[in-house]
Amino acid sequence: MHPGGNKILLAAGGPLEPFWALYAVHNQEHVLEILSEYKVGELSAEDLKKQQDVKSSDPYSSDPERHPVLRINSLKPFNAEPPAEILTDNYITPSALFFKRNHLPVPQVDPASYRLSVEGLPGGAMTLSLEDLKTKFPKHTITATLQCAGNRRAEMNKVKLVKGLNWGIAAISNASWSGAKLRDVLLAAGYGPDVAKWAHHVQFEGLDKDVTGTTYGSSIPINKAVSEEGDVLLAYEMNGETLPADHGFPVRVVVPGTVGARNVKWLGKIVVSAEESNSHWQQNDYKGFSPGTDWDTVDFKSAPAVQELPIQSAITAPADGAMVDRSEEEVTVQGYAWSGGGREVVRVDVSVDGGKTWQVAQLRTSDKGQVYEPSPPPGRAWAWKLWEVTVPIPPGAKELEIICKAVDNSYNVQPDTVAPIWNLRGVLSNAWHRVTVKVRE
Ligand code: MTE
Ligand code: MO
């Protein structure tokens, strides 16, 4: 009944240590207690010796250094978000502060021997070195926001417990990405009208592996990959520098407007196919369900894999529980807003009285005098909008419930509460964001 049941069975009959090392989040007292019922015994010294090389090293020992300000959600694998109060200080999130979401140890890839293989097209596989990718295809740069499907999961956990990392509001960040267009690479590898007749998906495989040798993988619809307006990149730079190890060095796919999970890092293989990726993360995770669906009744085949994400916004200042001074007379509210599929955020509404009255926030167009890029072409708004509004403190109020909600150019809006969109995996959490602050007289 465990969602990763197939992995548990692979551990049966052998030492558990390599599994504890990899899925270190589960190495906790209450899990050991559940498992004690199934304990077979201790391995003999002789058998133990045979296993020595298997369990010798911590697979996470070569993970890169990380910025100490990050709020760690899990250490092994490394998952962390920046503190919400600094998230919107910069339109472009510095790479060190960009949220990090790893399912497995960070693989060490030698850029000189790195090869990307493109498969499934007539004429056989095409193999590209990093140098090929940089020199044989034009370099494109886009600014795109990545958001994890689990962003704001903590709010779902408050309604009813869900499975997954307890992300706050900062499993989202914005960067500029440079690399070759996936479209250009697929055309060079043999994609054409004949392939279009049967090919429906492009699958991606990472070079990060679990103890069984299974790699991280996912897929996207082929139209997104081959469209001129899709802007899907095989990125080798982030914010004008070599892609950092945590973000997929040497190459990751950036699928703008699409859930983080499809933006495969440490990209090793691309497969054009009639089928979606059969990886766990495409088939049995990152899907939405009705609030009434539980782990006994869930059928992952019944729901589509998340691709484009719904409209989202959140308040980064003031923080929940903060104090504002009555003598200031006003409160300045700041945050971010973003929508999937290239839909542009056109408005953010803010209330400081629990939703009775609303003010329209200003969408920021510059940072410290530096003006952002001009408006994106329609349908290609890949980057978030930062916003701000200053509102009078209502007379007599001892406490303010501050709310934000955004609208995109398809007039999609956020739901007002969490409970009706609650789902067992805690994904797609995009209700109105609410913080409560106290007014100091
Ligand atoms: N790619 C690989 N190879 N392995 C992973 O664990 N995690 C995915 C995606 N790509 C992942 C991956 C998920 S769920 C998210 S949200 C994003 O990467 C996070 O990207 P970031 O760490 O650069 O923020
Ligand atoms: Mo994610």
Describe the protein in words.
With 441 residues, this protein is of the alpha+beta class. It has 3 domains: 51 residues, no CATH class; 232 residues, Oxidoreductase, molybdopterin-binding domain (Sulfite Oxidase, Chain A, domain 2, Alpha-Beta Complex); 129 residues, Immunoglobulin-like (Sandwich). Helices cover 15% and strands 29% of the residues. The protein has a 5-stranded mixed β-sheet. Strands 6, 7, 10, 11 and 12 form a 5-stranded antiparallel β-sheet that branches. Strand 4 and strand 5 form a beta hairpin. The radius of gyration is 23 Å and the shape is globular. 43% of the residues are buried. Bound molecules: ligand MTE and molybdenum atom. Ligand MTE binds next to strand 3 and strand 8. It holds the Pfam family Mo-co_dimer. It comes from Solea senegalensis. Its cofactor is Mo-molybdopterin. Its EC number is 1.8.3.1. Keywords: Metal-binding, Molybdenum, Oxidoreductase.
